[in-house]
Amino acid sequence: MIIMEGEYVNFFEVSAMFLNERVGEDLPEGIYKYELRGADYDPGHPLVVENHVGVNHAGTILTVVPLQIPEGGLRLGTGLDFEGGDVTTDEYLEEMEEEDLQELQEISESAIGSDNEDLHLSGKDDRYAIYQLLGNRTPEYAFMGMDYIKAHDMKVRAKDYTYAYGGKLKDGDTVEDLHAKFFASQPPEFYGHSASVSDVIVIQKDGEAKAYYVDEVGFTELPEFIQQRLREFRMICKREDSEITMDTYEVEVEQHDGYWHAVDSVEILDEIFFLMESNDFGDSVAAVIVDSNGELVAQDLENGFDKGAIEAINEYFSEKRGPRTHD
Question: What is the pTM of this model?
Answer without folding.
Answer: 0.88
